[in-house]
Hints:
361 residues, alpha+beta, five-stranded antiparallel β-sheet, single chain, 65% helix
Amino acid sequence: MEFNVRRLAADAGTFLSRAVQFTEEKLGQSERTELDAHLETLLNRAESTKQWTEKIMKQTEVVLQPNPNVRMEEFLYEMLDKKIPSRANNHELLGECMIDSGHEFGPGTAYGSALIKCGETEKLLGSAEKELIQSSAINFLTPLRNFIEGDYKTLLRERKLLQNKRLDLDAAKNRLKKARVADARSAAETELRIAQSEFDRQAEITRLLLEGISSTHAHHLRCLNDFVDAQTAYYAQCYQYMVNLQKQLGSFPSTFSTNNNQTGGNSSASVSVPTVPAAASLPAPPPSQASPALNELRSTSGIRKARVLYDYDADSSSELSLLSDEVITVTSVPGMDSDWLMGQRGNQKGKVPITYLELLN
Length: 361
């Protein structure tokens, strides 16, 4: 008990001495021991590293999760050490909406089928986004956060300890200057030597830790490479998903893809898609773009099998209604419009638009 009291009294005396020295320095009433230039440079570099690391972390989190409410919720779950609940992201929600609407309109229709395909791709984009966020959190954000909450806090403790040792040293120098009696001067000189030794030792420890910032930069560089790799994989994945979707939708008749570019005078034609009967609204590809199989069929008036790409409702008794994915027999009739072929399903015959068909070998 007595030892603890003496220890508390000594600590209180040390604290008071440091407070007096700090105040006198601020008021310009006492000299201050300056750190060497190299150590000051290292301290500034460490502080700069901490500030920019925090900014990079914050902005990366904004990029990965733009919704501030969701970021706050995830932060609270981390603070409470609870598992963050799984939720659908925006791409996945859009995908589910498209798929549901596609089934409502009918997966057998061109629009319904397209919505379902787009919805499935949106869900794939959502999954890829989740993988990017998870990978970035593990390989990029976590190491940066570990530096702020671990290594840098250790540096701060040593830096604060160095500051206290400097105040002790300067206080010892002041006491030596004020000592008049020989015994007092001898005691002050001994105290000064001890303070100088402790200050030099702490300065060396702090310097060694600060020089480790170079290793921190090297580690963060590797983490940055991992982040770039994750982004590259993500965008490559997204690009491939969209290219595949584009290919799936690219076989739709040109009428479907040009609705938004038509003028107001053609708005009625846009609404009636995909059952526009007029031959002029289903332009055939120019001869240079026609497939060899179609050119052969036209030149020989032969008979071929064809797969139906999309549903088609006949507009008159001369046309044949079509169902997606069915196989029919087609032939080219001399004098018939080049946009149409003669189709046959069992005993049923009628004109069918070329753009709705895929000739089979």
